[in-house]
Design goal:
This protein has 357 residues and is α+β, with helices and mostly antiparallel strands. It has ten helices and 13 strands.
């Protein structure tokens, strides 16, 4: 459950007696949690006051119309104050504090612009001036141009044999174009077909169908419950070369008991966003989402079953059918980890995201 949902359930009296006790104990012991709750409560109170005031004004207007008709004018002796003026400071403080609490605690693994000094910054800005120029240069066929640096880079992996790829939505939100590449695949254009910002996942599809003609994805998605302490590993692109990480499942819920996520004891870094979390059999059990700022070897991954719930809610039947068409073949079980990785690597990608200035 998300922190905001937990706060709302407490304020509305929906929690059980035991949950209320746990909640209030946490308020006393966790200052960050308590501060976030107080600011959320302030925001909710401000919204309720505004709603009540608006309802009262509407009742007065109805009485006035009944008595004097629609043409009669109402002249207020007080200057009218809108919601923003009346409550803006309260809302701004609440929203700002809540944002600071969240951002300082859970950081999404998106690397931002990869620039290390002024020289690279200038070169990057110059090359990013026109993505269309790169495309046109390839069409001309005179000489293959050097691609401009991406605004964002991260990880992704094959969803099935139909050319669909999964990554994090915070990577591709607002993207002008999204490419994928790895040691087996040259830079290839994709199309964004699904974004779920609440769950933080995005589904891409490789634009050129010829690229996926020979795909034979060796892993499947495990949507069953996973045991605490189970050995897990990750593959992703915090660097230009794929990076392997291993650890265990340290919690069956994420930050603030968010049941859509797992917590893992693997050090994830900028660039790992959107990469797969796999179990010992090579089944995908989640998608890497983020980590706790300042904490070593702690990360979070969206659970596979939550991803498929999001897909089930799709209204575009053709895409939904394609995405739910998962291979039942599992070719990695029983193999050594090194052999599993060799077979998985061609289906784990470096994502390159370009955004307009």
């Amino acid at each position: 459950m998300r922190p905001i949902d937990l706060f709302d359930d407490y304020l509305s009296g929906k929690l059980s007696a035991d949950d209320v006790l746990d909640f209030e104990n946490r308020l006393r012991s966790d200052n960050t949690f308590a501060e976030a709750f107080e600011q959320h409560k302030t925001l909710v109170d401000a919204l309720h006051k505004s709603e009540k005031r608006t309802a009262f004004k509407n009742k007065l207007k109805a009485i006035h119309t009944s008595a004097f008709g629609n043409d009669a004018k109402i002249i207020s002796i007080n200057r009218e104050e809108g919601f923003v003026k009346r409550y803006g400071k309260t809302v701004l403080v609440a929203a700002s504090t809540a944002a600071i609490v969240v951002l300082s605690t859970v950081a999404a693994i998106s690397p931002g612009v990869k620039q290390t000094n002024n020289e690279i910054t200038e070169l990057g800005l110059k090359l990013q001036a026109s993505n269309q120029a790169i495309v046109e240069g390839i069409k001309e066929g005179s000489q293959k141009p050097l691609p401009a640096p991406a605004n964002l880079e991260g990880s992704a992996f094959a969803f099935n044999n139909k050319g669909y790829i999964i990554t994090s939505s915070h990577m591709v939100n607002g993207a002008d174009s999204v490419f994928v590449q790895n040691g087996s695949l040259e830079r290839t254009l994709t199309e964004v077909v699904l974004i779920d910002t609440k769950l933080d996942i995005a589904i891409l599809k490789i634009a050129n169908p010829d690229v996926v003609k020979t795909w034979d994805v060796p892993f499947t998605f495990n949507q069953k419950n996973t045991d605490l302490g189970e050995k897990v590993y990750t593959l992703g692109y915090p660097r230009k070369d794929v990076v392997y990480g291993e650890g265990s499942l340290s919690s069956l819920s994420g930050y603030y008991n968010d049941t859509t996520m797992y917590q893992i004891s693997i050090p994830v870094n900028p660039g790992n966003s959107g990469g797969p979390l796999l179990n010992d059999q090579g089944n995908v059990i989640g998608v890497i989402r983020g980590k706790i700022t300042g904490a070593e070897a702690t990360g979070f991954a969206i659970k596979s079953n939550e991803i498929f719930r999001s897909i089930e809610a799709l209204t575009v039947d053709s895409v939904k059918t394609d995405l739910l068409s998962q291979s039942k073949k599992q070719t990695l079980k029983g193999l050594k980890r090194t052999e599993q990785i060799k077979r998985i690597n061609p289906y784990v990608f470096n994502v390159l995201v370009y955004k307009k200035d």
